């Protein structure tokens, strides 16, 4: 039996380079990582090393309703399956039973590991007509390796000074406008949701077809996404935590930095820049939040 190693999130995100994942799995490993899952709480990842090389990976999703769902194992060898499932049971702080779908040798290994067969299922795979798309509607960005260069450019061009006390945190570009997030003086329901909807519509108007928008969260992982292929029927939701800065700096911006939004959590302001985006969102944001507290034209 090989030694079983636990992998933290940064190392876990590179495993797809070394491991073939033939499936079938609930979600292929590479797709799961690309969608933003990580070993930070939403997925449990185990690896099998042989002479320092990853030879097998297993993963399970927590918070899948009343179960922890076994997403996949790239090796059906009984000892590996038992070691992974035993480890997941020990880590299962929520007390959720493990659920797996399997057939053939993997099914037998799971039964040997203590699983009980409860039902049989039939899976159907929908293959829509037309040419498959070559890019994902949304892609996870690793803070250390993927979106760091974009943060560097933003910091240099906008003189970004992250601080709980320094205000404003950026040199606002021309043209731009800054709204106070609590400037309204009347009862308004779901201000964060309404702000996000306004910005979402503005980004659709201000960006070009096929252009990607980046959602960044200071010192956390971010995403890039196609605003025309997310948040519509049959598509994944737009990634990220929205526009309203809930405890950290949140940004939407294009790769060329020509337009975007900057939410300051301590000043409680939202900066919008870029002529096209500003024109698209200013009337609605002003109606919701009142007149801008700062403006550069």
Account of the protein in words:
The chain has 2 domains: 4-112, 3-Layer(aba) Sandwich (Aminopeptidase); 138-296, no CATH class. It starts with a strand and ends with a strand. It has 7 helices and 13 strands. 25% of the residues lie in helices and 24% in strands. Helix 3 (78-91) crosses helix 4 and helix 6 (191-206) packs antiparallel against helix 7. A hairpin with a 5-residue loop joins strand 10 and strand 11 (260-264). The protein has 297 residues and is an alpha+beta fold.
Widest beta sheet: strand line-up: 6-9-8-10-11-12-7-13
Distance between the termini: 68 Å
- Domain count, please report it: 2
Class based on secondary structure composition and strand pairing: alpha+beta
The helical percent reads: 25-40%
Q: Report the count of strand segments.
A: 13
The backbone outline, from C-alpha atoms, is elongated
What Rg, in angstroms, do the CA atoms define?
23 Å
Q: In DSSP terms, counting alpha (H) and pi (I) runs of 4 or more, how many helices?
A: 7
Portion in strands = 15-25%
Strand-and-helix sequence, N→C?
EHHEEEHEHEHEHEEEEEHE
Q: Are there runs of 5+ residues with pLDDT below 50, and where? A: 6-20
What composes the largest sheet?
Answer: 8 strands, antiparallel
Oligomerization category of the chains in this entry: single chain
Integer average pLDDT:
85
């Amino acid at each position: 039996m090989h030694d079983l190693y636990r992998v933290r999130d940064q190392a876990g995100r590179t495993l797809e380079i070394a491991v073939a994942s033939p499936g079938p799995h609930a979600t292929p490993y590479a797709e799961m990582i690309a969608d933003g899952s990580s070993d930070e709480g939403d997925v449990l990842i185990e690896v099998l090393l042989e002479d320092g090389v990853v030879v097998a990976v297993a993963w399970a999703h927590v918070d899948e309703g009343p179960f922890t769902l076994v997403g996949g194992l790239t090796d059906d060898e009984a000892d590996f399956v038992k070691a992974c499932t035993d480890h997941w049971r020990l880590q299962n702080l929520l007390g959720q039973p493990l659920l797996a779908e399997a057939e053939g040798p993997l099914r037998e290994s799971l039964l040997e590991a203590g699983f009980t067969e409860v039902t049989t299922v039939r899976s159907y795979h929908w293959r829509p007509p037309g040419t498959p798309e070559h890019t994902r509607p949304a892609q996870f960005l690793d803070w250390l390796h993927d979106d760091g260069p974009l943060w560097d450019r933003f910091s240099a061009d906008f003189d970004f000074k992250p601080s709980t006390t320094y205000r404003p945190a950026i040199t606002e570009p021309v043209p731009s406008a800054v709204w106070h997030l609590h400037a309204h003086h009347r009862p308004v329901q779901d201000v964060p949701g309404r702000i996000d909807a306004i910005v979402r519509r503005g980004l659709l108007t201000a960006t070009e077809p096929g252009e990607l928008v980046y959602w960044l969260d200071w010192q956390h992982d971010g995403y890039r996404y196609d605003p025309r292929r997310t948040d519509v029927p049959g598509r994944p939701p737009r990634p990220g935590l929205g526009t309203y800065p809930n405890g950290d700096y949140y940004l939407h911006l294009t790769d060329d930095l020509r337009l975007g939004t900057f939410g300051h959590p301590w000043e409680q302001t939202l900066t919008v820049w870029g002529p096209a985006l500003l024109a698209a969102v200013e009337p609605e944001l002003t109606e919701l939040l009142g007149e801008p507290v700062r403006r550069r034209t």
